[in-house]
Amino acid sequence: MNLWTVQTLVPLPVLVPLFAAGLALALHRYERVQRVISVVALSVAAAAAAGLVVAANDGPVVVDVGGWASPVGVNLVADPLAAIMLLVSSIMLLCVLLYSMAQGIADRHERTAPASRNAELLRDALEAQDPDADESGRRDVLPVAVFHPTYLILAAGVADAFLAGDLFNLFVGFEILLAASYVLLTLGGTSERIRAGSVYVVVALLSSIIFLLAVGLVYAATGTVNMAQLAERLPDVDPGVRLGIQSLLLLAFGIKAAIFPLSAWLPDSYPTAPAPVTAVFAGLLTKIGVYAILRTQTLLFPPNEKLEAVLLVLALATMLVGILGAVAQDDVKRLLSFTLVSHIGYMIFGVALATQASTAAAIFYVVHHITVQTALFLVVGLIERRSGTTSLDRLGGLARLAPGLAVLFFVPAMNLAGIPPMSGFLGKVGLLEAGVLDGSWLAWVLVVGSVVTSLLTLYAVIRAWNKAFWQPGGDEEDLPEQAPLPWGMVGPTAALVAVGVSLTVAAGPLYDYAERAAGTVMDGHTYVRAVFPDGPRGTGQSDEVTDDAEEGRS
């Protein structure tokens, strides 16, 4: 691909979903057209991300928005880290979209079809177990006219956050995706979702205020928010001021990434949303916070041993507190929400060690965790649809009633626990090896804590699988057979599970790519040279102004 073609790909993951969101909103009366628009838009975004993964392998690809060169203009930067994050997030968003569309179609058919005697018996039996069971089923109905535009805006915000070349554009990307997430979290308008959404909004706004304050301080201290230029200027800033800025950024991103003790909001917020929304939030949103920490800590700030030690302690606390919370749960959704918090600790472990090996392992683990955690939440959505509940005390016998569903849960669950030779195991081995190579006593404590967390994760998911699928349910014989799960929901779930397995098959090339991404991230000069090919000050001129000046001189 020539340079112009490659540069054309960079803004597509942002622009195409935004344009499609406006089109879907304008055509809100035509549900089928909305579905086509959404699928085409996210497919184009995924294809562009795949092209960028190939192109960025040779070095970061930079686009100056509006033709204005850095540092005056806004630039989008697709380096190997941004490109791989874009690709895996695009695939995940597309699979969840297909799942949600099938769920909406199935829900509508169930509401309009005449109730059979068997369905009436099933509903009566579920209501006898839980008076809110029927209401719970209604809560998962997605308002299509609102869902598609909001979902596409979320996808655009995610892409903008990954490609942002300056801190303020990163802030804008966060706000775009967070504004969309507020709507998605409260779809249906039930009291439970409004309550959970209120907590989520307050926490997200707090982190955004802290982030904006940090951006203002950065500009006051350096005169720029361009990350390439900040990489040149921040090392010369007074160490106390620099530490304050670094701490504020870590605090803002730590809330978004749900690092302990800033993670208490997550287990109460995510499980209340519809299954597709929960899957997106759990699989992707916290990883954007991790991405921001990884990007800013490696590119902008020189090594700080004391701050890295604090991060290591927080990583250990996040692992252990999260997994102990998961072990104590009797609901699958809440159990997975706590494992989500716990495994963020692995990623922060890799960032805190601040070596190329640990950063590569952290990048590999982020890619692995996005696919596996999303797949697990989609499977839980199928479990809830099949049984009317996610309570482990009420589930049972699903391996006999739905053997395929048992396999779909078991495979990503074992991957999450890190069973060899799956990608979860390979990512953890990379992190443990980096910790051993570090050799400090705190790194060794993290190594032991990582192993303990992995074993407790295995215990938690095996216990959940045993209760839900293997042991007989207390009221299993009293419930009639339910209709098979819609293939439109099973198919995307199986595809995402297969993507998780493929990470194991392609672990060699993927880990090599993660190492190249880590090398680019750790070597700030590569990033700076790509953004400022004419030197660290840049030209600060638009292409049109430059062309007019050259014509005038001639």
From TrEMBL:
InterPro entries from the UniProt entry: CPA3_Na-H_Antiporter_D, NADH_UbQ_OxRdtase, ND/Mrp_TM
Record has S-adenosyl-L-methionine as a keyword: no
Acidic residues: bias regions: 544-554
Stretches that traverse the bilayer: 6-27, 36-56, 76-99, 141-162, 168-187, 199-221, 241-266, 273-294, 309-328, 335-354, 360-380, 401-421, 441-462
Renumbered residue ranges of the record's region Disordered: 532-554
Topology of this chain in the membrane: Multi-pass membrane protein
Pfam families: Proton_antipo_M
Residue ranges of domain NADH:quinone oxidoreductase/Mrp antiporter transmembrane in the record: 164-453
Subcellular location: Cell membrane; Membrane
Keywords, ordered alphabetically: Cell membrane, Membrane, Transmembrane, Transmembrane helix
Transmembrane is among the record's keywords: yes
Similarity remark: Belongs to the CPA3 antiporters (TC 2.A.63) subunit D family.
Protein name: Na+/H+ antiporter subunit D
Source organism: Promicromonospora aerolata
